[in-house]
Structures are given as structure tokens and as C-alpha cells.
Amino acid sequence: MLEKREFYINGQWVAPAKANDYEVIDPSTEEACAVISLGDQADTDAAVAAAKAAFADWAFVDKSEKMALLHKLLEVYNDRQEEMAQAMSMEMGAPISMSRVNQVGAGSWHLEGFIKAFDKMSFERDFTGTEKTLLEPIGVCALITPWNWPMNQVVLKAVPAIAVGCTTVLKPSEIAPLSGSLFAEFMDEAGFPKGVFNMVNGDGAGVGSQLSAHPDVDMVSFTGSSRAGKLISKSAADTLKRVSLELGGKGANLVFADAGEKGVEYGASRCFRNSGQSCNAPTRMLVESSFYDEAVEIATRVANETHVGPASEEGQHIGPVVSKAQFDKIQGLIEVGMGEGRLTAGGLGRPDGLNRGYYVKPTVIADVTNDMTIAREEVFGPVLAIMKFDTIDEAIAIANDTDYGLTNYIQTPDDEKRHYAARRLRSGMVETNGKGFAQGSPFGGYKQSGNGREGGLYGLEEFLEVKAVSGWTS
């Protein structure tokens, strides 16, 4: 079993101020695979103090020096990507093939995108002939990241914050902390100055709350549940620090009859990807009435053909969900959904042949209406709810009738319908016809899906203050 009790503070690996062991569970086996320590106030204070001390110099380090370090980080990341793939697969259950390609690849892809955006970025803008607008780093940033896409979220926060001159304290999820510790090793190997990046393990009630309320933290960037995002916002309010939130979702996928079989197949498989543990998953499939019965049959087939198995196995299957708590929550919502709608695939319990591990059957519930629990609550598992619509305006109204607003989807070859719907859907992102977003595209949502944007230029600007200076002479 791996022992990862130390924290990375001020350029060194240090023991926790007080021992507080916490076992990391491999969701494929339900057995402990590692032990970490959960930090307390003394550890949080030490990390914040290191970041605060480093900020005065790091904020003014030349852009070319920062760029060189980012390139070195990318080199280290790529050289050690197999270690990262194995860590994420073990800690959160992504099948190893997916972990290598998608989980690891998300981190390197975003890092490359930030390097390109940072290279083009100017921190001084002429406002008038004698006035400048300066973009400056906000200060010490607390970065609180989730377990479902570990490197995707660590890179989306740590890299832009550090690039623009902020200093950071990372608290990765205690459920999946091994990748965060490994990233700290990458930062150390890349040669970032001490105090610029710090990492403390802990849970939300402990280190997470301490960082949110800390008077020397200038900004909190958090990805996780909407419930936790509200608590962080309340905790941060006393010090009026900036809070950037990327929260939950209940994405609607508008499937028009002219989308055909491929539109349904894509939507269902996209819902089940990563065992349904993605905030931007299209978990509500809205189907045009004339195509509804056929679409239900297609989605049911996709679910039945989706293989579930251990994360250690090669292949294109889906793995377990991350924890017993998550498994139990999903089972409860499936049971509720079965009582509300019509179960056509999956259901309660583990898939056949799997009697240990947090495995969930890919599940389809049809004949759903938007007032049902299964249509309103974020399941965060491989569960698809299908409902019908008659007109495009009805589909848009159903899609928008939710507390969330992260990503919606449209499937139709009709450009006029796609453009009409895309403009009226209330979400930070609208993906159409399976076309993924470009590198550096702004990721974020409306309503209870959050209030920040991550990726590329938008992600860099998230960590900046705006200063107006008059009387500037060339």
C-alpha cells in the first residue's frame, strides 16, 4: 500500500503537523490502496504563509521566465504520464485505457492551451494616450479540486493562476489524492520557486473550509457539487474574497428526428462515459415525438452493450463509480427513477459477474417528465432519463427548466434549428452534433452550475485584477 502522508509546502515535502491517517480506497476492489494524512489548521496556515511570502516576487517575474517553467512542466508531465494514468485509474476507477488517453490527455491538452494563450497575452492595455489599464495577479489562490477528472481540474486551476503571477495552495479531493501529490512532484521537478505552488491534503470540512475562510487567501477556485459551492461562498463572504465556481449540471440533449440513430447513440454513450461522473454529461435526453419510441430502443441497446469492468483492464468499457457513498446515492436515485418512469435497461445492483467493487449498471429510464426527481437531481452515475417533445420551443423550455446551466446538447443536421436552439438554451456551453470544443474554449456555466470560466485566455483572466493608472507616459 502506498504511503503519501506528506504535504508539499514552500518547496519541500513535509510531515503533517498532526498525524491524521486516511485510507484511499480502490473503487474496483473496495480495498485500501494508499494512505494519506488529512491536514489541520496548522498545515493550512503554513501553506498559505508560504504562498503569501512567495507572491511579492513571483508576481513580477518576467513573462519569459514563467513561460520557460510552463514548458518544462509540460515536458515533465509528458515524460511521467504513465505514472499519472496509473494513479488516477487506481484512485477513482477510470479504466486504464481511458485514463491514459482522456484523463491524462485532458491535463496536457489544457496545459498546451494555456501556454499558447499566455504567449499572446498582454498585461498592459492603452486606455487613452495618458492612461493605462493593467492586469495584475489577484494574489494567493486556494484551489479545491474534485475526484472525477483530477488532472483536468488541477491543470485548469493551477496553471493559469501561476502563469499570471498568483501563488497557490492546492487541496485535491481526499477521495482521489494520489494524482494531486504526483502533480506536486511534477511542479517540483519543473523547478518552480518555493512557495509558488503548495499542496495540502484534507477534506472539505477541514482544509477546504479553512482555505475558504482564510484571511490571507485572496481567491478560491472550486470545482464540485453545487451544495459545496454554496458553503464555500458563504465561508468566503466574511473576507470578501473572490470565488470562482464550476459546479453541477443536468445537461439536456435535444435529439431531433432528423438526427437519426447516430444522434441517439452518441448521446447515450456520452452520458455513460466516465461512469456518468461528469458534470457536463447529457443526462436528460429530449427526443422529438415522432422519433421517440425508436430512440428509446436505441438508447436501451447502447446501455445493454456498454461493458462494465475493473479499471485495471484494458479496453473501452466503463469502470466503477468512485466510492461506496456515491454508489449508494446512485442506487437510491435509480430506485426512485424506476418508480417514476419506465426502466428499459440497467437498474439496481451490480452488473452480472461483479460482486465486489462500486459498479453500476448503465441505466435508461424512459417516459420521464421534467418534474420527476430523476430529471431534476444530478445523479452523477451512468443513468439516462429520456423524455419527449413536440416542438422546438417546448424542447427549449424543458431544457431550461432546471436549476443548472452547464452544458446542453443539440443533435440535428438542420443549421437553422441548431442556431435557434443554441441561442435560447440557458447554459454556459452548447455542444452540437458531437463536435467537441476547441482548445482554450471557455468552460463554465449559468445558474447553480457556477460563475467562473476555465481554459485558455478566459481561464487566465479569471485570476487577474484590473487596475486603472492615469498620467502614464511612454
Automatic annotation (TrEMBL):
One family name in Pfam for this protein: Aldedh
PROSITE patterns according to UniProt: ALDEHYDE_DEHYDR_CYS
Gene encoding the protein: ald_1
First-level EC class: oxidoreductase
Enzyme nomenclature, EC number: 1.2.1.3
GO molecular function, one term: aldehyde dehydrogenase (NAD+) activity
Keywords: Oxidoreductase
Annotated family: Belongs to the aldehyde dehydrogenase family.
Protein name: aldehyde dehydrogenase (NAD(+))
Record-linked InterPro entries: Ald_DH/histidinol_DH, Ald_DH_C, Ald_DH_CS_CYS, Ald_DH_N, Aldehyde_DH_dom
Domain Aldehyde dehydrogenase: 13-469
Catalytic activity as recorded in UniProt: an aldehyde + NAD(+) + H2O = a carboxylate + NADH + 2 H(+)
Natural source organism: Pseudooctadecabacter jejudonensis
